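INTERNAL AUDIT FORM
Audit reference: QA-55
Scope: verify that the stored structure record matches its stored sequence.
Auditor: D.O.
Record contents follow.
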Amino acid sequence: MAILSPTGSRQLTRSPTSGWGRFLQRSYEERQRKPDDLEAQEGQRPIAIHALENLAHSDSGIVMLRRLLREQLQRVEQGLDPINVIRDPSANTRIPTGAWNTILSPTEAAALPYSEDL
C-alpha cells in the first residue's frame, strides 16, 4: 500500500501486514507468543481490573500512588481536605523557585529581587 508523505513529496510504502488490520491476520498462537504494542493496547480492558494484575517489585510506585489516592478519597468522604488543599489565604503563598524559563546559579538567583507578579 502506498501512502503520501505529510509533505506530499514522496510516497511511503507500508507492508500489508502492518497497520490496524494485522491483528486479525496473525494467528492466536502467534499473537500469544510474540505480542506487539498494538496487541498490548487492544488487549486491555476499557476499565482496568487491578485484581487481575501481576505487579512486580518495580511497580512499587503504582502501588504507592493507588494507596495515596485511596487515602485521600477517604479523607474527602470524612469531610476533610485532601493533601495540598489550603483554604486559608494567608497560608496559601507561592514558593519562589526561580525556575521559570531560565536556569540560574544560586548566586544569580539570590541577586534577583523577588516579585509576587511572576
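Auditor finding: record pair retrieved intact. Residues 1-5, 10-17 have pLDDT under 50 and may be disordered.
Action required: none
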